[in-house]
Amino acid sequence: MSIACSEETETLPKDTTTFYHLCYVTSGNVIAGASTPFTFHVPTESELVAVEDPTDPGMLVFRSRVAQLQDNLQKRNDDYDQLSLKHRILEENMQVLKKELDKSDEALKTAKETVTELFTNKQGLEIDNKVLQERLVQFQQETHTIGQLEEQLTQIKSEKEVVEGQLKELRDEHDSIKKQFEDNQKGFLALKMENVDLVANMSKNYELLQEKSRLVESQASTIRCLQQDCERSTQALKEQVQLVESLSQRSEVLSEKLRALAAEHNAMVMENIELSKKSSSHAKVEELQKENTQLKKLLQETFDAADPTKIHHERANRLEEEKEMLQAMLENLEEHHSKCANKIQLLSSELRVLKNGEPSNERRSSEQSDPAGGIFEVVRTVASNFGNLIVPQESPVQKQPTRSGPPSNSSSEDLDSKGFEVNGEAMKAKLQQVRHQKSELSTQLVSLRHNMSEMNRELSEVKQDNSCKKNRIEVLELELRAAKEELMKIKKRKQDSDYGMLIGEHIEALTSGLPAISKFNEQVGILSQLQQKMESEKLENEELKRKVVDLLMKDSDMCSELQEMRDKYDDICEQLEIMKKTSQAETIDMLGKALDDSEFKKRDAETKLKQEVENRARLEQQVTALRAESVGKVSVDCSRKMQEHINSLELQLGEMDKFSNYMKKFIHFTFDERRNKPINCPLCPTEFPYTAEKKFAAHFKDQHMK
């Protein structure tokens, strides 16, 4: 819009202080409006600027400084808009990259944890494999010793045959010599035979007593170990129950603290209401009260949404239910332990009875005949027949009754030996039952420990939630305190003339604080999403741990089976030793049967060992498969890319930090240092008071933006 102005006089007015107006007159000679005041004066060098013509770069054009500054300001505004758009785009990209970085960090952490766990499992399996190899070597050595024992048995058989041939020869010689014995030698031979029998029987009885006492001591030691294990398990369960009780007490204390904080919050709200009632004189103060009530509603809604008392009550109820369940399980385990103790007492009493009844059995076993006894019996019968033929003189030695040979009731001896074997088998079966019960108790203890670990994890999550909510409550309390301080300042400045302007400044300060609150809420939402992701990853880790625990349980079962096989093998070896000791009273057929049974049991043990080795190999294959899966997830290229990505994000974060520091300095300069100072127009020497921001904006728009 161009305006032409003409003066009737030839020269302009010389008085530069007089101001003129351009009036807009309608067709009816009515003044519709007037322009801003202006003066006529000769332009100075400071008001003109020499600028190159953009169409003709060699030409210089003189323009007014105001127009040039307006063009520069327009360019700066356009550049500022472009930079703000770029800044927003960079912020969005930074947030996306932050999320990706957090995801990659979490994936790396989980992968490292899984790798460490699998490495520890590998080490444990290698140790177990070494132990099994040592056990295999021991088993091979034991088989070698069994072969040596079999060779010794064959040698004993051959020696027995040689001894039988020698016996026949001795009998023939004895038949030729027995006529030469005299009556006095008969008594001497009888006494010597009785002494030899007594010495042999005493030595045998002493050895049997020693072996049985060793067995009784070993069984008593196993019973003591079982009792100690039962006591340890009960103590561990009691400690776990005490931990649960202490955790429930801590949760109650936290709920009481949260209630106290809620009461303080309500008191602060009531104080704000009273302050708002006292400061209801002015209309703008009423607008502030409305905004304050809206903020309070928002705070109350957030507080109600994040009310921790309900959550704590629910979790406390859950903990009480789990506590009752654990107490019931503890009572059941105590009853089971008492039953096991009763069984152990019964077994110990039976062992004592067997120990007390050993002398009779030993006497019965000592009455068995041996080859040397048969020789002496033949000599005794020959001497008695010779005495019947020749009537001897009576002597005190002949008046003593000679001891007859041992009875030949093989059926009674077989019954006694069978009864003893039945009692031994019953004792072994009972001991196996007790071991089985002990393994079941150990599995139950493992499950209880797993449950306690889950409860501890839940309590840690509850504590984290409580800490987050406490931080949120502290932030809200700080905001309430700031609002209270602003209200107190408003009360003190009621007498000032610029009361409305102060209220406007406070409103602008509150509006400037709203984006910070919204950013805080966004950060809280991001944190909640991250916590959910962490919980999902924790669940996956727990599943992997459960798989590892199952593998370990299978390994323990296999070890228990191997121990049972070893016990059976030891029993077989003991039976072989007993058979060797009692081989003088048994026939060759019985020894052959016993050897066949031992070979059959040995084969069964070897087959079971092979099965256990195969099962162990399967477990190792499963572990290697799990390790391969975990290693495949995190490769070297992936880790390198993630590291590069992390470095780039760190650089971007550094740039953003620099920009945020610059913005902080600018805000501090504009709102703190320039407060209560007049506003100077950058294009003209006019000044405005520090509360007249609207007037300055209107002046700049009207005077310099046309």
From TrEMBL:
Record has Nucleotide-binding as a keyword: no
Keywords: Coiled coil
Taxonomy, superkingdom: Eukaryota
Region feature (Disordered): 391-418
Coiled-coil intervals, chain numbering: 66-180, 244-350, 431-493, 527-629
Compositional bias per record (Polar residues), positions renumbered to this chain: 395-412
Presence of the UniProt keyword Coiled coil in the record: yes
Signal peptide region: none
Protein name listed in UniProt: Uncharacterized protein
The organism of origin for this protein: Apolygus lucorum (Small green plant bug)
Lineage: Eukaryota, Metazoa, Ecdysozoa, Arthropoda, Hexapoda
